[in-house]
């Protein structure tokens, strides 16, 4: 059936009822040229193979016995005089007429079969609730309906229809019908209700049944379908769908409120909404103008919403067709419905009208090939199988525009009763109802993944989007508005209203120190290995160095390299450069000489402050060298008075080099205004003043800036550990105790190790602990609270380009999420989560984190193009000079306005077609019991397939197989590392972060093939391989072949399971074959 413009214009002009009738006639005309007629089977008493759709539900029940996901529930409210006996006779007649309602199922030699019982005693179960008060009655009715809706069926015992009449009073009752989906679909419910109404009407008047005998039964259709599927029609349809869905994304990454469970529970809920009349009429008018149906326009709108939520431009959405194309099927009860996958192409940011054209072409082609059973398509495409989500698509769209059944009965008023108990067969289903009064919609959602608030917001976003396309359908998809005004204001304004700075900002950083030195001149400023410098001594020595540097030409805009070992002289150098008006460039002596040389040359520093033991590293560079030890006499002759300030707020204070994507570091230019704001923000946020701060990080990392200048501006003592790099954590406790350290800032993994290795009494002086620099695992708070419950723990976030920090979160309870939030913006700072087109993303939707405010630095030294790309104009500000820094980090807003860090954008990887966030996987592994640390890497095996490898530091005696099993409870199978490698410790860089490049390559990346190493296989592995080869008829398999990707399907997996259960001495479920679809994984599970 080909749809011309005239045809679609005619269809769109019809009412929903007329349109449905015309479409049905057109389909039946087309079908008569395609398929043979369905006839009665020869032996009505013989077992009959199940239909292909039934086969899928049979397998589902084997995987999840005792479930209720496919219980089809409907309820009618009846008011008036009800003849219960007549109602029961009507039910008995329906069961007699439709064999499928007398059918049970069993496993046959070639798969499951239908067993039809000649007669079944159908009884209407009656529950009298008439004696209860109204409120109690309503509550008890809902409880009983919920319980009956959730009661599972046993497919092997028949009786797959249950009816209950709840009597609420003399003239009020509710009829509840629960049927398993394997014998009935949504269309069938209408057939059931119409027949029941007709039967009740005639039987109550004493007349016989008005219904004609059915020419065929559902079992006849199942036999016909199996025969028809052998025809060339199947191959033609299969070729179309194979082409259409080639390389389609296997999983839509929707913004869930909760992690996806390993196995779907099908817990569901609904959220309702209504589109106003103007939007509803506008969508119909737009559809007519674009030569499309309303279904196509609404589907395009829904896929646009999904694109804006996920960033994916390739979006498969499921829909259903009645699949009753032969006239004789229309009055049958049975499971006929078929599922189609409509693959949305939203690439290239098309205009909405262009997307409707694409959607129209996709939908029309799909409807022309709608006869291929979804089960055949899944078996042919062999997608990655999981118990946690539906294959090929996880989101469905349905437009309901069929006329309602006439359910008027003599003496009775009937009305549908909304069922509170809901199951969700997919992650998300959007159902739109086309009525004479406009469009009504509801979401059916998986309540394990989403919450009601998310769906309420989604309703608002869909309405804003559809209203916009009605007003102007020529706008590109990325430019369509999505956020209601109130939500946009909350994101851009309300959640950026921060605490004002605690005091006015001085123009220069060193003035904060000088003011403190004037207040407490004799207090200890720096402590290191028995050395002490008072504020007065530190100030005077820094002044002397500043005068000396000015004599060498140092002033505003001049960069001075500083390469010193950890000692009080380091602080003298940093402050001396600032007082001279210059900006320091930290050069960590532990860095390789080539890196140090590059940084000195790139910065064009004309002066280098170092010490005699290090000066030979810079012998080939032309910078003037000042050695703080051997030039000490020259420095001592300089004046101790403070030099006249030269640097202003817009002059550079320092340039810190960070890792660059080219392999060479890049210098971040930080002004006095940037770092003064960053420092005063600490005064504002942290109520506990610094009395003693232990500086763990290298001064070449910007986290050192927090400790140095916060401490020296509040009169505290800056404690420097001995040696270079990360100090021995076991001995660190003594240092903390000896100096009564009150404040500590380090990365979470280092703090976790410190809590494990130090004595609790050595940590007792800590009042404020801050972690930053990497994702904070939730269990760190439990560790912290267990050792030093009196200290506060904070999680900070901020890139060097935003001057140390820009958001912070105080941990006050164990987080329920995979990672600790990074909180809210610090004072006078703006944080936005934007999509690729710089539009704010909704609450819960991942976006790139952008930072604005006085902490945003000048940019990259000698990299104007990179600066222009990463430091952009603030599109939400009226100030044309206001800039945002694009962090390259992914985050999302939680409902309370806190930010959740999701990882680097460039840490997203594709594994077997799935998009995986390495940070999420690491967070889950780190939370597992007995895992002290975890990191995940992507490696290529010998076939150049990408595989996830997890590296874990675990307690003694921990089984890696058990850990992987535990990870499967929280992550989809594609996100669980294919190999876990146990290491004694993770390799680290000088700043304490994990050195990913030094992680060892696991041995199992060598692909084990059938030919090369079957002699090394275990007996169990050979047994599994033999069963696989027999079941799917292949000559060889490897340890890492995926059962479903080399030919396994729903029928063969049952065969393998039955044989394997007999062969091994372990309690097995068929679900284990889905969880462990390779021989290596399955054998490791059976024999850990």
Automatic annotation (TrEMBL):
GO terms for biological process: amino acid activation for nonribosomal peptide biosynthetic process; monocarboxylic acid biosynthetic process; secondary metabolite biosynthetic process. GO terms for cellular component: cytoplasm. Keywords: Phosphopantetheine, Phosphoprotein. The keyword Protein biosynthesis does not apply. SMART domains: PKS_PP. Pfam families: AMP-binding, AMP-binding_C, Condensation, PP-binding. Residues 1015-1088 form the Carrier domain. GO terms for molecular function: catalytic activity; phosphopantetheine binding. Gene3D superfamilies: 3.30.300.30, 3.40.50.980, ACP-like, Chloramphenicol acetyltransferase-like domain, Luciferase, Domain 3, Nonribosomal peptide synthetase, condensation domain. It comes from the Bacteria. PANTHER family: FATTY ACID SYNTHASE, NONRIBOSOMAL PEPTIDE SYNTHETASE. This is Amino acid adenylation domain-containing protein. It comes from Myxococcus fulvus. The lineage of its organism: Bacteria, Pseudomonadati, Myxococcota, Myxococcia, Myxococcales.
């Amino acid at each position: 059936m080909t749809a011309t413009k005239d045809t679609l214009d005619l269809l769109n002009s019809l009412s929903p009822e007329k349109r449905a009738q015309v479409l049905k006639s057109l389909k039946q005309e087309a079908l008569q040229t395609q398929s043979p007629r369905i006839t009665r089977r020869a032996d009505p008493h013989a077992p009959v193979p199940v239909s292909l759709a039934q086969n899928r539900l049979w397998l589902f029940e084997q995987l999840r016995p005792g479930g209720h996901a496919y219980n089809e529930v409907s309820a009618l409210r009846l008011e008036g005089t009800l003849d219960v006996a007549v109602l029961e006779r009507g039910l008995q007649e329906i069961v007699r007429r439709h064999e499928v309602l007398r059918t049970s199922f069993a496993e046959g030699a070639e798969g499951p079969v239908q067993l039809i019982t000649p007669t079944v005693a159908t009884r209407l179960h009656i529950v009298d609730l008439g004696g209860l008060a109204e409120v109690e009655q309503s509550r008890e009715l809902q409880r009983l309906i919920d319980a009956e809706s959730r009661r599972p069926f046993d497919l092997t015992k028949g009786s797959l229809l249950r009816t209950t009449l709840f009597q609420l009073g003399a003239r009020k009752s509710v009829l509840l019908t629960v049927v398993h989906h394997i014998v009935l679909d949504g269309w069938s419910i209408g057939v059931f209700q119409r027949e029941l109404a007709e039967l009740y009407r005639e039987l109550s008047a004493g007349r016989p049944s008005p219904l004609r005998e059915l020419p065929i039964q559902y079992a006849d259709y199942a036999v016909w379908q199996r025969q028809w599927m052998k025809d060339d029609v199947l191959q033609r349809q299969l070729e179309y769908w194979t082409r259409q869905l080639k390389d389609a994304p296997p999983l839509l990454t929707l913004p869930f409120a909760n992690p996806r469970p390993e196995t779907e529970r099908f817990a569901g809920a609904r959220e309702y909404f209504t589109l106003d009349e103007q939007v509803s009429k506008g969508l119909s008018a737009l559809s007519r103008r674009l030569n499309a149906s309303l279904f196509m326009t609404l589907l395009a709108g829904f896929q646009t919403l999904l694109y804006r939520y996920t960033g994916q431009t390739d979006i498969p959405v499921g829909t259903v067709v009645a699949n009753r194309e032969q006239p004789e099927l229309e009055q049958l009860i049975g499971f006929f419905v078929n599922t189609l996958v409509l693959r949305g192409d939203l690439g290239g940011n098309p205009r909405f009208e262009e997307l409707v054209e694409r959607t129209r072409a996709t939908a029309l082609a799909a409807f022309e090939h709608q006869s291929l059973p979804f089960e055949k398509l899944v078996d042919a495409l062999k997608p990655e199988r999981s118990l946690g989500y539906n294959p090929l698509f996880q989101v469905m769209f349905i437009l309901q525009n069929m006329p309602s059944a006439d359910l008027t009965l003599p003496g009775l008023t009937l009305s549908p009763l909304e069922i509170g108990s809901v199951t969700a067969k997919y992650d998300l289903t959007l159902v739109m109802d086309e009525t004479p009064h406009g469009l009504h919609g509801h979401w059916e959602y998986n309540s394990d993944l989403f919450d009601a608030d998310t769906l309420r917001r989604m309703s608002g976003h869909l309405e804003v989007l559809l209203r916009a396309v009605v007003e102007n359908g020529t706008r590109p998809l990325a430019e369509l508005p999505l956020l209601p005004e109130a939500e946009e204001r909350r994101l851009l304004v309300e959640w950026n209203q921060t605490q004002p700075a605690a005091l006015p900002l001085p123009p220069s950083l060193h003035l904060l120190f000088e003011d403190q030195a004037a207040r407490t001149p004799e207090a200890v400023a720096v402590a290191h290995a028995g050395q002490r410098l008072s504020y007065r001594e530190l100030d005077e020595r820094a002044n002397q160095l500043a005068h000396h540097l000015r004599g060498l030409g140092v002033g505003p805009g001049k960069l001075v390299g500083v390469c010193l070992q950890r000692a009080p002289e380091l602080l003298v150098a940093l402050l001396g450069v600032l007082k001279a008006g210059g900006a320091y460039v930290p050069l960590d002596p532990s860095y390789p000489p080539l890196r140090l040389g590059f940084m000195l040359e790139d910065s064009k520093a004309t002066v280098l402050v170092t010490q005699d033991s290090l000066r030979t590293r810079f012998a080939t560079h032309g910078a003037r060298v000042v050695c703080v030890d051997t030039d000490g006499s020259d420095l001592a002759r300089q004046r101790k008075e403070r030099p006249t300030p030269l640097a202003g707020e817009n002059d550079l204070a320092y340039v810190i080099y960070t890792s660059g994507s080219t392999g060479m570091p890049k210098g971040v230019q930080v002004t006095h205004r940037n770092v003064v704001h960053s420092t005063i923000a600490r005064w504002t946020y942290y109520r506990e003043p610094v009395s003693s701060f232990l500086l763990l990080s290298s001064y070449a990392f910007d986290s050192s800036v927090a400790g140095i200048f916060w401490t020296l501006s509040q009169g505290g003592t800056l404690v420097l550990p001995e040696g270079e790099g990360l100090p021995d954590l076991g001995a660190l406790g003594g240092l903390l105790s000896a100096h009564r350290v009150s404040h500590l800032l380090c990365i979470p993994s280092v703090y976790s190790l410190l809590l494990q290795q130090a004595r609790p009494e050595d940590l007792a002086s800590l009042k404020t602990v801050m972690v930053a620099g990497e994702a904070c695992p939730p269990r760190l708070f439990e560790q912290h609270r267990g050792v030093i419950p009196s200290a506060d723990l904070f999680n900070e976030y901020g890139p060097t380009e935003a001057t140390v920090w820009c958001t912070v979160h105080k941990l006050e309870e164990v987080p329920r999420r995979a990672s600790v939030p990074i909180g809210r913006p610090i004072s006078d700072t703006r944080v936005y989560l934007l999509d690729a087109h710089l539009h704010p993303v909704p609450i819960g939707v991942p976006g790139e984190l952008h930072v604005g405010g006085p902490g945003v630095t000048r940019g990259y030294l000698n990299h104007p193009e990179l600066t222009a790309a990463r430091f952009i104009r603030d599109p939400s500000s009226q100030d044309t000079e206001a800039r945002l820094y694009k962090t390259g980090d992914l985050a999302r807003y939680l409902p309370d306005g806190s930010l959740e860090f999701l990882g680097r954008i460039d840490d997203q990887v594709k594994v077997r077609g799935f998009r995986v966030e390495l940070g999420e996987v690491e967070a889950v592994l780190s939370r597992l019991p007995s895992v002290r640390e975890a990191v995940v890497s992507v490696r290529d095996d010998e076939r150049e397939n990408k595989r996830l490898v997890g590296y874990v530091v675990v307690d003694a005696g921990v089984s890696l197989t058990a850990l992987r099993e535990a990870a499967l409870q929280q992550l989809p199978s594609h996100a669980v590392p294919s190999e876990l490698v146990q290491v004694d410790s993770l390799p680290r860089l000088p700043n304490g972060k994990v050195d990913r490049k030094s992680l060892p390559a696991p041995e199992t990346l060598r692909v084990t093939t059938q030919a090369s190493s079957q002699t090394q296989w275990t007996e169990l592995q050979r047994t599994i391989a033999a069963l696989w080869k027999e079941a799917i008829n292949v000559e060889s398999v490897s340890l890492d072949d995926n059962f479903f990707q080399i030919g396994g399907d729903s029928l063969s997996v049952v065969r393998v399971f039955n044989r394997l259960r007999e062969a091994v001495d372990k309690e097995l479920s068929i679900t284990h074959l889905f969880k462990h679809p390779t021989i290596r994984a399955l054998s490791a599970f059976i024999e850990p």
